[in-house]
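> call design_seq(struct)
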């Protein structure tokens, strides 16, 4: 065993049943059907067994509803970091005006803070959506980091799949054409950095969702589950290869989980359109456990706030100039 394991982070986007139905344009989402009462106790048990503390990104629309309060509160009580995942969970959030996003974020925070008693310092946009407008508002609200970028070339492919499997009108498709990013997103940095917005150095740190260095293919747990449908051996090899490339390129990985990594066809049948939903929850949890065993063998796994702290500290010690990136306003395509 290694003496000093390098740090890596782990987070979970608490996407609820209704948000998948909404994105998929399925009727019935308007009553906000929830699986948090099943999912949250299950994932908290799992994380406790693995001795992990992670970051949960919570959707404001779930925090506002009484039926979800106990589940959301139990996440904070278990000592996990609480982050904001917007109020309405709309993957086209990067097209919002400044006022629209200001309203969405204020409302999300109000209810997340009320239920959890924690002040979020981290944000993740739904569907990896981000704009300079979003960053400016986050900065005003005192956020220390954003974790909404997925540096992959697969974005346009994901969008094609989304269009194929949803019941959107041509007008809706047009309004969502920037969904899942552009091809050039694949060239974004993999390591954390600080944003430079409108030519000024800003305090906000970006922690990208790590994709496989060089190849820029996603390797978060949902992808590993998807590959395991074809070959479980290949799935584990793919994950090990991704981590190996992270070490080679000295990239600190930030891995991502979703509720559907723990929920199977035995739990919900409305989401059958989602990849790997033909697996049972037991099969999925076993594989997620194997993946996190590999992750934990190689890294000390922490919530995102620790990842950000380590990044800022490293910059102080080395006294080197922190890295910044400029973002142009991407509101207009
Ligand atoms: Zn989400």
């Amino acid at each position: 065993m290694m003496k000093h394991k390098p740090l890596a982070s782990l987070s979970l986007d608490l996407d609820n049943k209704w948000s998948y139905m909404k994105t998929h344009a399925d009727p019935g989402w308007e009553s906000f059907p929830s699986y948090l009462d099943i999912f949250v106790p299950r994932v908290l048990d799992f994380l406790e067994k693995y001795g992990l503390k992670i970051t949960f990104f919570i959707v404001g629309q779930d925090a506002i509803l009484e039926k979800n309060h106990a589940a959301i509160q139990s996440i904070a009580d278990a000592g996990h970091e609480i982050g904001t995942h917007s109020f309405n969970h709309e993957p086209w959030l990067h097209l919002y005006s400044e006022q629209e996003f200001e309203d969405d974020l204020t409302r999300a925070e109000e209810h997340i803070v009320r239920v959890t008693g924690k002040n979020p310092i981290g944000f993740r946009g739904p569907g990896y959506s981000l704009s300079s407008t979003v960053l400016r508002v986050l900065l005003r609200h005192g956020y220390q980091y954003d974790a909404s970028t997925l540096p992959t070339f697969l974005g346009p492919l994901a969008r094609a799949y989304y269009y194929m499997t949803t019941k959107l009108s041509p007008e809706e498709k047009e309004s969502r054409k920037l969904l899942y990013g552009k091809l050039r997103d694949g060239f974004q940095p993999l390591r954390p950095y600080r944003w430079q917005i409108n030519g000024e150095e800003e305090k906000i740190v970006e922690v990208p969702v790590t994709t496989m260095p060089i190849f820029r293919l996603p390797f978060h747990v949902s992808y590993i589950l998807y590959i395991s449908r074809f070959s479980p051996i290949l799935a584990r090899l793919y994950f090990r290869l991704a981590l190996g490339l992270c070490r080679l390129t000295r990239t600190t990985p930030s891995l991502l989980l979703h509720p559907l990594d723990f929920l199977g066809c035995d739990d919900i049948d409305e989401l059958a359109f989602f990849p790997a939903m033909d697996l049972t929850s037991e099969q999925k949890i076993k594989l997620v456990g194997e993946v996190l065993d590999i992750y934990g063998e190689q890294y000390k796994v922490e919530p995102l706030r620790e990842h950000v702290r380590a990044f800022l500290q490293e910059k102080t010690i080395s006294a080197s100039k922190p890295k910044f990136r400029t973002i142009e306003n991407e509101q207009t395509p």
